[in-house]
Amino acid sequence: MKRLGSIILSIFIIFVLSATNPERSDYLDWINHKTMDQSSNILKKGILSVAGKSIFDAGTTKSDYLVFSVYKTDFTDVGLGKVTTIGVFNQFIPLSSFEKGQ
Asked: What is the pTM of this model?
């Protein structure tokens, strides 16, 4: 009976994790707002508010592992660097901030 309970609990946890795995559009909204909040330049904020999602969409890759996702945004070509983020429970956890490319 304990084994059946463990199996049911495991299935429930996997179901909750997969149901709360955030979508790419959620990530793009999150990183756009986070970048706008960190910017003190009004021109940069204006550009991000108009075209931020498409800018971040072009430089972002998503690896979906069913229960969580890993997002990597790479802007080393334009001098902004890279950021890696885990999406789980409808939240985003940055593993690294924008790091300048070598």
From this structure: 0.82
